[in-house]
Amino acid sequence: MGRLFGTDGVRGIANTELTPELAYRLARVSIPVLAAEAKRPKVVIGRDTRLSGDMLEAAMVAGFCAAGADVLLVGVMPTPAVAYLTRELAAETGVVLSASHNPAEYNGIKFFFRDGYKLPDAVEDEIEKRLEHDGSGLGCPTGGAIGRVYRVEDAADKYVAYAAATAGTDLTGLNVVVDCAHGAASQVAPAVLRRLGATVQVLNAAPDGLNINTDCGSTHPEAMQQAVRASGADLGIAHDGDADRVLAADCRGESVDGDQIMAICALELLRAGSLPGNTLVATVMSNLGLDLAIKQAGGQVVRTKVGDRYVLEAMLERGLKLGGEQSGHIIFLDHNTTGDGIITALQLLRAVRESGEPLHVLAAQMPKLPQVLVNVAAKRKDAIQDSARIADAVRQAEARLGEYGRLLVRPSGTEPLVRVMAEGEDPALLHEIAEHLGDLIRQELA
Question: Which residues are catalytic?
Fold first, then answer.
């Protein structure tokens, strides 16, 4: 079979691709890999607001308990909060049941090590190997050796207090719109902002199990932008379903994306002499304007493949502290071990407060080259590298863009899509190239 783990855990349509049986088996076989030295392992499980979360949670609880592990249930909780709580509660591993920004019919299983970091490929491969052997050789605890289940009633309070403590500033007098995407941020994001003194207008914080990410949140920030304009708020922030991402809007309702957020925060750290190596990590999808802004301030940008795991790898290898993606998935290693949309929002608000400038002025520090992104539905997305027609079309398009343009064509790591991104000086040419390639990919890979 193909590799089970993608760029961000195991993901698929709940109850068909991602079944309770698979969830049970994953839990069962992962304990010997992730907690081999522990006599009585502890596992933290959190989830987002998807209807399928209860079903998959029950299956994983059964699997972990059958492996002799105690389970600490923290309920609906952002992905980065689970990373923090895994460390805080001294668990051997943490699990998040979430498909992040995907629609409600999807779900996913993400693992964290005891240190709060996501699993490297080699560890995921070992879990898959054991899964293929159907867990043969596993012991079957009985009596008191079977795992127990505990609910951590104050889990949200612990994370809210922790996140607020990272802000480093008071937000009294700041008027903020926050879009929670009917997801895991619905309770904790407004609580953190209010704890710091901000006036908060909350949008899309009434999850029903099916409305997560639906026309809201960071994938559809238009309602947040409109609310900022209508209410006269200082700015707005929008999370995705599991709150590991954030996008923003300035007081005029104009979008501020992940590249601009990274630029604002990196430039503040550069001015303070607090950006290790004067270096920011970003992926190949980030706008070239980010490089220009950081270089002009005396820093540099290191580029990686798309995916927060590759950003994190580069940060750890080089001893760096700030990196992320245009999507708003940004890692502040001084504060958490993974992308944290709430902490990122706080660092952005801190930059606004300490600079004394409105967000649109800070965002203007980064020039943006025109970019066009087309997402093409493709069931055979991974076959893109085998198509001579697509390869030839890409070469021709790159020649048309010239030395001041870029073209990226890649399969999504989390969805049945191929992403086509064209960047350059002529928006009309970018649209023409991206649409042409999109049509060709549909023909070849449908």
Answer: 100
